[in-house]
Amino acid sequence: MNFVHTDIIQFQGTHYQFGHFQAEKLKNSPILTHRKALLDNRWRNFLVDEREVEDVFKTFSPAIWEEIKGLSDGLGLPWNDCLREFGGYYHEYGRSGCSIYTQRDFLVRNYDNAPNTYEGRYVLYAPTDTGYASLGPSMQITGRTDGMNEKGLTMGYNFVNRTKSGDGFICNMIGRLLLENCATVEEAVQLLRELPHRNTFNYVLLDTAGKSIVVEVSPRSFFVREANSCTNHFDQLKDENRYRFDESLERLERIHEKQQLVQTPYEAFRMLNDTEQGIFSEKYGSWAGTLHTALYLPRELSAWIALGGNRQPFIFSFKKWLQGNKLRATKIKGSLNATDTFINT
Question: Of 58, 118, 213, 290, whose CB count within 10 A is highest?
Answer without folding.
Answer: 290
